[in-house]
Amino acid sequence: MISGTIFDIKRFAIHDGPGVRTTVFFKGCPLSCWACHNPEGQRPGTDLFIRDERCNACGECLEVCPEVAISTDGDAVHIDRYRCNLCGACADACLRGALELAGRSVSVDEVIAEVERDVVYYDESGGGVTFSGGEPLFQPEFLAALLHESRKREISTTVDTSGYAPHAVIHDIADMVDYFLYDLKLVDEDRHRDFTGVANRPVLENLNWLSEHGATVTIRFPLLPQINDDESNLRDLGRFLSSLAQLHPIDILPYHRIGAEKYARLGRSYRLSQQPVPAAESIAVAVRLLEESGLTVTVRGEPYAIE
Ligand code: SF4
Ligand code: SF4
Question: Ligand 1 center to residue 199 CA distance, Å?
Fold first, then answer.
């Protein structure tokens, strides 16, 4: 029985591909993008969230922690994350939901059973299942098994990916995927490495292959002021995309702060705490430069309208 690690399953998703979808969030990602809005998806194992605003310092969690990793200052709790073994006893003990584990091991059958609940909505809306993350390609056997089982049930499949994976992984799943949502952030190798922690060559090469292979792909471009909104990156992006075998549409996703508070809940620092959101003018420039490369450009999934 193949199993994998996920941190969420979201039903009735409407921004993760066509129609109404169930999105399965894989845990673990080889990238460490500064702007990641699902930081609980980055590490392969379990994470522990603390929601200070829910804690009334009752002390129940201190009583059950086998590692004596929890302390309180009378207002909230503090976790010594070096001591914590992520057993989850504190989360079970907390009646206020202030502590929560992110990440659980699930079988393919369990995921498919959840996905199958909404087949009627997929059929009515042209939707299906989306495998997202984290990075779904980071658990290739689990992903392949889920795609296979979805296909057997005639459930349409989308993979939402950074594209960073050995080519064999992309090659082996491509024919079981109806639709790819493919993130591109920066074209320059050094800047990409700086922002994501990994090289972009596999990302570009895998996309090049998918395009030649006839895959249906929408590019997703997170627009981040002072990080990737400069003319040089936008022109490089346009040049690269217009050189592919197909002219794939590109959806601009202006940076937002949703997810920033999760870093604090995980005890991590957020590198973009001072990051501005894109000005309307910056979005307009990005649209224009990408359109000049012959691309069909949308913003947040919608045709661009001047803001
Ligand atoms: S059990 Fe929950 S509410 Fe009580 S101290 Fe622990 S985290 Fe806070
Ligand atoms: S997850 Fe387990 S070890 Fe970690 S703080 Fe909670 S009870 Fe303690």
Answer: 42
CATH 3.40.50.2300, domain 47-102, yes or no: no
ipTM over 0.90: yes
Report the C-alpha gap between 284 and 134 in whole angstroms.
29
Exposed e or buried b per residue across 29-58, where buried means at least 16 C-beta atoms within 10 angstroms of its C-beta: bbbebebbbbbbbbbeebbbbbbeeebeee
Nearest CA to ligand 2 atom 2: 87
Q: What percent of the chain has pLDDT over 70?
A: 99
- CATH among 3.40.50.2300, 1.10.443.10, 3.20.20.70, 3.10.20.30 for 3-43+105-303: 3.20.20.70
At 171-205, the pLDDT tens digits run 999 999 999 999 999 999 999 999 999 999 999 99
Domain with CATH 3.20.20.70 in the chain: 3-43+105-303
Quick: pLDDT tens for 90-138. Answer: 999 999 999 999 999 999 999 999 999 999 999 999 999 999 999 999 9
100 lines ligand 1 (CB under 6 A): no
Residues 6+ apart with CB under 8 A from 128: 17, 18, 19, 21, 22, 122, 150, 155, 156, 157, 158, 178
Is the CB of 58 inside a 6 Å radius of any atom of ligand 1? yes
Establish whether residue 94 lines the binding site of ligand 2, counting it when its CB lies within 6 angstroms of any ligand atom: no
